Amino acid sequence: MAAFNLTPSDPSTFLLTGIPGLEAAQVWISIPFSMFYIIGLLGNVMLLSVVGKEQTLHKPMYLLLCMLALTDIATPTFIMPKALCIFWFNLKDITVAGCLTQMFFLHMVSVMHSSTLVTMAFDCYVAICNPLRYGTILSNAQIAKLGLVGLIRAVLFILPLPLLLSQQPFCANRIIPHTQCEHIAVVKMACGDITVSRIYGLVLMFVVMGFDLTLIALSYILIIRAILRISSKKAHQKALNTCTVHICVMLTYYAPGLFSNLTHRFSQGITPHIHIILADLYLLLPPMLNPIIYGVKTKELRDKVTPSPKGPVTYPKCTSDLTPKTPLQEIKDLLTKKKKRVIYKFRAGTM
Fold first, then answer.
1. What distance in Å separates the CA atoms of residue 208 and residue 114, rounded to the nearest whole number?
2. Sign of the C-alpha dihedral, residues 223, 290, 110, 261?
3. pLDDT (tens digit, 9 = 90+) per residue, 156-181?
4. How far apart are CA 111 and CA 106, in angstroms?
5. CA dist 328 to 111, 120, 149, 203, 331, Å?
6. How far does Cα 174 stand from its chain's mean position?
7. Looking at the domain that runs over 2-307+322-343, which CATH code has it been given?
8. What sign for the dihedral angle of Cα 234, 238, 241, 246?
9. pLDDT: is 302 or 115 the higher one?
10. Is 273 helix (H, G, I), strand (E, B) or coil?
11. CB–CB of 84/42 below 8 Å?
């Protein structure tokens, strides 16, 4: 068993060591990791179930939440089964093909997740800055198309990573000090010229995150500018609430992701187990936090998950305007009313 832990018995396999330096504590570390995974899985499945059952939630905003939930389910599912096999049963071997496959899907879903966050920022921008055209700019069909574009982008960007590595010869010492087949960790196992792989991986990280963060920042700058032009304090509060939710979700994703990637590539002063724990938490915490953040902050979702103790409220069919509205819908209504008043005054010649 000791020899098995030190070197792969099959030249077509890698060994994932888990968390170097903390081997004795890995069983205990697996407990919070498993809790994060289970809580995230249950929360996201519940979100998908609620949106799927409720016809009133079949709207662009909630379709985007479903897309986010799907990526939040997929991301930890690609790493947790193997990580738990390492922690609990000391099953560390993984085939080269299996490792490259895990790497592809893991990074592809991460890019897809980033694309979804960009689309959500655009949805928020249109709802607040151009509410009169929201229905024509962002319909359910348009959201589906944007989701498909995000998927194609993710596949095209990430596919070269495993393809480049599959052409490389790997060294005899195929021990990956990690719980997962992260790109930079697998690159270090290659014995050939890895310049292209390293540069492509680094450029890809900055292009995807840089481009997406720029679009998100631009959306929120325009949103804040639109909010400052509104005299209604209620609209200000609703808009700030909505923006705060989105910003919290984005910070839980981008901040640890950038920190983990940059320290893994450039920092030599941080011990390996810190790198690995950060990388794992980056993939486990956002999927757990996202359904909690949206469930707490979005009134319509909260009402569906935790109905009033007095029993379900029934609304007359002729009074659909009494249906509970999300903060984003209320902001749109306030802005729409303000624009209509301006148009009315202009036509009446009072401006």
1. 8
2. positive
3. 999 999 999 999 898 878 899 899 99
4. 9
5. 26, 12, 25, 36, 5
6. 31
7. 1.20.1070.10
8. negative
9. 115
10. helix
11. no
Q: Give residue for tokens 């888990």.
A: 18
In angstroms, how far apart are the furthest CA atoms of the chain?
Answer: 89
Residue pair 121/180 in contact (Cβ under 8 Å)? The answer is no
Whole-number pLDDT of residue 309: 56
The pLDDT, as a whole number, for residue 348 is 52
- DSSP alpha helices (H): ranges in the chain? 2-6, 26-53, 60-77, 80-89, 96-129, 134-137, 140-158, 160-166, 183-187, 195-228, 233-266, 272-297, 299-305, 327-348
Domain residues of the chain, as ranges?
Answer: 2-307+322-343
Picking from 2-11, 239-248, 253-262, which range would have the lowest pLDDT averaged per residue? 2-11
Task: Determine the 3-state secondary structure of 12 from DSSP.
Answer: coil
Q: Is the distance from CB of 170 to CB of 190 less than 8 angstroms?
A: yes
Give the whole-angstrom CA distance, residue 20 versus residue 179.
10
